[in-house]
């Protein structure tokens, strides 16, 4: 019977040895996985402390991750793949990969948020710059319009100044517009009815005009001081009638008693064929209306 049981004993011993090998390998794998987890745990715990220091830019955040994952080492008798691996072993192998994936997801979200913030600030800056450019363009247009208006006003003022200067230059340039001649009889200086009608017709509408002066020159047939006095009386008689009957202001009337001087030719500047003023026994008064450009 010992011969029959001997092979069975050997077979049982070999089967026990084969069954013991997976258990030893599993024990070795569990020990190595615990060692790898303990080795990677300090790196994971140090990661949050490194992130705040690198929160300046997304690129710095991306470089603040933990050390690269190392490839799994050979696991005991079975090598890389253990057909008898337990859930705890698989969890130990997947935990570093899951943690690193979560870390990458967080960095990606943070980078996306940073990019979105930069894009929003860029759009706001561009919009503000566009508004400022539009406002500057509007201000420039208003300034250009104001300059154009000022230029037009300056041109108008120059024209007005030129017109005023021209008028001022022609104020004292009087031209003879009308002339009249009155003849008196010997005796006191007195206007007869014919002379009054002649003056009324000559001075008609003159009180409503501007830019004119009246020149009254009287001549007498007497000589010496008596002639000058007599001619002045004739001129005063005519001026008195102008002021009282035609409301002519005195500052527009200029008189001169010429005595027995020879009268000037009438309308010499306007009509060379006009008759020469002649003396009469009682005296002669020559009246001229002179006007400048302001009268127009």
Give an account of the 3D structure.
There is one protein chain. The chain is an alpha+beta fold. It has two domains: 116 residues; 121 residues, 2-Layer Sandwich (60s Ribosomal Protein L30, Chain: A). It is 58% helix and 11% strand. The protein contains five helices and four strands; from the N terminus they run αααβαβαββ. The chain has a four-stranded mixed beta sheet, covered by helices on one side. α1 runs parallel beside α3. The radius of gyration is 65 Å and the shape is rod-shaped. The termini are far apart.
In short:
The chain has 296 residues and is an alpha+beta fold.
How is this fold's topology laid out?
Blueprint (H helix, E strand, L loop, with lengths): L1 H52 L4 H5 L24 H83 L5 E10 L8 H10 L9 E8 L4 H23 L6 E5 L25 E9 L5
Parallel strand pairs: 2-3
Antiparallel strand pairs: 1-4, 2-4
Helix pairs in contact: 1-3
Key traits:
single chain, four-stranded mixed sheet, 11% strand, 60s Ribosomal Protein L30, Chain: A, 5 helices, alpha+beta, 296 residues
Q: What is the average per-residue confidence, as pLDDT, rounded to a whole number?
A: 74
Helix/strand/pairing class, anyone?
alpha+beta
- CATH level 1 class label of the largest domain: Alpha Beta
What is the succession of H and E elements? HHHEHEHEE
CATH T-level topology of the largest domain: 60s Ribosomal Protein L30, Chain: A
- Spans where pLDDT lies below 50 across 5 or more residues: 36-64, 265-275
Extended strand count: 4
Instruction: Return the CATH architecture of the largest domain.
Output: 2-Layer Sandwich
Q: Major sheet: size, sense and barrel closure? A: 4 strands, mixed
Number of helices: 5
- Total number of distinct structural domains: 2
CATH superfamily label of the largest domain: OmpA-like domain
Radius of gyration: 65 Å
Our measurement of the CA-to-CA distance between the termini, rounded to an integer number of angstroms, reads 167 Å
Portion of residues in beta strands equals 5-15%
Order of strands across the main sheet: 1-4-2-3
**Principal-axes shape call:** rod-shaped
């Amino acid at each position: 019977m010992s011969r029959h049981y001997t092979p069975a004993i050997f077979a049982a011993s070999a089967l026990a040895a084969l069954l013991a090998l997976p258990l030893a390998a599993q024990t070795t794998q569990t020990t190595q996985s615990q060692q790898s987890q303990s080795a990677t745990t300090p790196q994971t715990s140090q990661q949050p402390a490194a992130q705040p220091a690198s929160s300046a830019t997304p690129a710095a955040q991306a470089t603040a991750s933990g050390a690269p994952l190392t490839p799994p080492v050979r696991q005991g008798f079975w090598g890389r793949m253990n057909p008898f691996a337990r859930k705890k072993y698989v969890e130990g192998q997947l935990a570093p990969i899951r943690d690193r994936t979560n870390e990458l997801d967080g960095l990606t979200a943070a980078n996306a948020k940073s990019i979105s913030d930069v894009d929003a600030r860029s759009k706001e800056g561009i919009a503000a710059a566009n508004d400022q450019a539009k406002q500057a363009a509007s201000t420039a247009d208003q300034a250009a319009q104001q300059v154009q208006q000022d230029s037009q006003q300056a041109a108008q003022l120059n024209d007005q100044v030129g017109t005023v200067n021209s008028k001022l230059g022609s104020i004292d340039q009087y031209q003879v517009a009308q002339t009249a001649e009155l003849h008196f009889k010997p005796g006191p200086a007195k206007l007869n009815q014919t002379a009054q009608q002649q003056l009324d017709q000559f001075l008609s509408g003159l009180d409503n005009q501007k830019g004119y002066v009246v020149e009254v020159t009287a001549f007498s047939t007497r000589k010496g001081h008596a002639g000058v006095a007599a001619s002045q009386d004739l001129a005063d008689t005519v001026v008195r009638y102008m002021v009282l009957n035609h409301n002519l202001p005195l500052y527009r009337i200029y008189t001169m008693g010429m005595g027995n001087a020879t009268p000037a030719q009438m309308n010499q500047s306007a009509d060379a064929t006009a008759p020469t003023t002649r003396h009469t026994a009682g005296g002669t008064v020559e009246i001229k209306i002179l006007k400048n450009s302001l009268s127009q």
